[in-house]
Amino acid sequence: MLLSRWTESRWLAAVIALALLLPLLAYHVRRMFAPMHSLFRALAGTVASYRDGDYGFSLSATASGELGELVAAHNRLGDALREQRLALVQRELLLDTMVQNTPVAMILVDPSHRVVHANLAARKLLGEGRKLEGQSFDALVALAPDALREALERGGDGMFTIGDDTDIDNSSEDIYHLARRQFRLNGRRHELILLRVLTAELRRQEVQTWKKVIRVISHELNNSLAPIASLAHSGAELLRRGQHERLPAALATIEDRARHLEGFIRDYARFAKLPAPRLERVPWSRFIEQLHSQVEFTFDGANDGVGRFDVAQLEQGLLNLLKNAHESGSAPTDVALALRRVPQAWRIDVLDRGSGMNEAVLANALLPFYSTKRHGTGLGLALAREIAEAHGGRIALLNREDGGLCVSLVLPD
Known about the structure:
It is an enzyme of class 2 (transferase). The protein contains eleven helices and twelve strands.
């Protein structure tokens, strides 16, 4: 009985001691872990700041061991994010400066046809210098010059002129190139419209072209008029001396040079006055037969289809190409015309086995007045290109694998 009471008193004492010591123990434990809790809260706070785009925080802690490594790694992450953010801001500022100061008018339009962004050139062109963001692009276009509105209504890329039609020297006109590109931004389709002023560049090119035209025409005129004048003088001397037997040769040479000059001028006039094509549905069999009656070539391909083109213009263009093929040094039997059906278009190839073209000639052959022939006008390929593009098609030149040249025209249906 006495032992039992003694045991109970010991347990009671232990319980009382434990009740007195537990709050003290809890206090010391909480005090011991307080720096760690504070550090964890700081880590959570900086992570939240990073998530919100604020990278101006770092942690300063005296922790050691794995906890110290965690703080150091966190600070290194913050430094890397700050550097990346700074670099990104600098790139954005550079890009914005370039976009704002480029002479190309740039307008970004959202799916509801509201202006999302417009640079300074666009504001000057469409808004008299005022900001355009948020405005209706259709309303801005409605107030724009007719030429710009018509170019936008046509769709796609193109060129147009804004200015006074009554201006004789076109000094008050501006020539623009319109480019339109569509892409998806934040899952929505946007359109980027670019308007570039080409007036000064085209004026310079125009002057250079005219200088080249004048040089070519002067050279060709001199080549024909000088012998004509000389032979006319010689003919007069032959008449005075009574040497009539030599007159036919002199007159024949004069006629030959005069006809050459006539053809030269006619080619220039045809190139300068090429009208818009009058498109009509034409059976290829009839067209090929008509072309074959004027120049020799072998035909390859199916000619049972129907094309849509201007007969006179396409005939003239192909005659020039076939004539070039015969003058390339190719055997007449190696001059060929191939016709192929391609998706939504027809492809016409003019082939020869001549010497082909080097890279420099290939790069310039389609330019007007460029010719490697001694007496060439440089208009044959240029005229073919003009005809193809007037039909909405294209032309390309490439050397053939076993020698010779292929001139390829693609004409849409």
